[in-house]
Design goal:
- By secondary structure, the protein is mainly α.
- The protein folds into 2 domains: 55 residues, no CATH class; 206 residues, MetI-like (MetI-like fold, Orthogonal Bundle), CATH 1.10.3720.
- Helices cover 70% and strands 0% of the residues.
- The chain has 17 helices and no strands.
- The longest helix is centred in the last third of the chain and has 28 residues.
- The protein is globular.
């Protein structure tokens, strides 16, 4: 009776959350039933119930595949480079924007650095080709003008990972500052005033006031980022991939695309996706426990 009374009392609030609840139920939880086909030899003609069960056969095939270690290495290296080099960039830019005293100038800068986020990876890749193409790229034309030989930026396996990281930094850094700027806005101004009275300069205020004030946000976003460590972005890698860099560009997303979409191996590609999800779940659980051990709130 108390539950019914509570629902009636807050009926409009429950009605407000109903669309979101239905969205997650229909598009996030119900499709999870599809992971069952990773343990089957799924056939669209036979369906879920009639397709034969094969147990962990597809997982064994994945782990015994000679390409598995290469794909796993590429995925992990690209993800770790994004964590090491891209993840801190929105924090640094947000700190610099927060220190600007001219608010109109701050808003202009924010608007400018937000813009790349709204460009598709197709456009980003096109800009990259225009800049770095060996035959007609602007950068190589400048190198020739200064008497240097053209450089093969796009077909050099040695810089492919760095190129992807640079694209991610340019495209998403501005958008990533939104959350950190919002967190900085919630810091009590009296803390900065007290620090100034104690003789702290701007750098000291940032180190002892601003960063501790947004530490929980940084830890939470880092944990979430580790949860998607096996996802490096299909569109970006697929558009930048070519035959010269395949050995360093092939990741789980492109591997699933070839096997699942082009070759119709639905069960096998689902097994690959489930493997990625399990790794992401373990990373979230481990990172959350580590954060709590060091006194942070974590996700749960």
């Amino acid at each position: 009776m108390k539950v019914v009374t509570g629902i009636r009392k807050d009926l409009f609030l429950y009605a407000l959350i109903l669309p979101g609840f239905l969205y997650f139920l229909l598009f996030k939880y119900v499709p999870m039933w599809g992971i069952v086909i990773s343990f089957q030899e799924y056939s669209p003609y036979l369906g879920f119930w009639q397709s034969p069960w094969v147990g962990f056969e597809h997982f064994a095939t994945l782990f015994n595949n000679p390409d598995f270690l290469i794909i796993f290495r590429n995925t992990m290296v690209i993800s770790m480079m994004n964590i090491v080099f891209y993840f801190p960039m929105p924090i640094l830019v947000a700190l610099m924007l927060n220190e600007l005293r001219l608010k109109r100038f701050q808003r202009v800068i924010q608007s400018v650095i937000y813009l790349p986020h709204f460009l598709s990876w197709v456009i980003i890749s096109g800009i990259t080709f225009l800049l770095l193409s060996q035959s007609g790229g602007i950068v190589n034309k400048l190198l020739v003008e200064f008497g240097r030989e053209p450089y093969n930026f796009l077909t050099n396996p040695g810089i492919f990972w760095q190129l992807l990281t640079a694209q991610s930094i340019w495209k998403e850094t501005g958008w990533g500052t939104i959350i950190f700027l919002a967190a900085m806005a919630g810091i009590d101004p009296q803390l900065h005033e007290a620090a100034r009275i104690d003789g702290a300069g701007r750098l000291r205020q940032i180190w002892h006031v601003t960063l501790p004030g947004i530490r929980n946000v940084i830890v939470t976003l880092l944990i979430l980022r580790l949860g998607s460590i096996m996802d490096v972005g299909f569109e970006q890698v697929f558009l930048m991939m070519n035959s010269a860099v395949t050995d360093v560009a092939d990741v789980f997303e492109t591997y699933v695309y070839r096997n699942g979409i082009q070759q119709g191996q639905f069960s096998y590609s689902t097994a690959v996706g489930l493997f990625k999800s399990v790794i992401g779940l373990l990373m979230v659980i481990g990172a959350n426990k580590l954060a709590k051990r060091y006194g942070e709130e974590g996700l749960y």
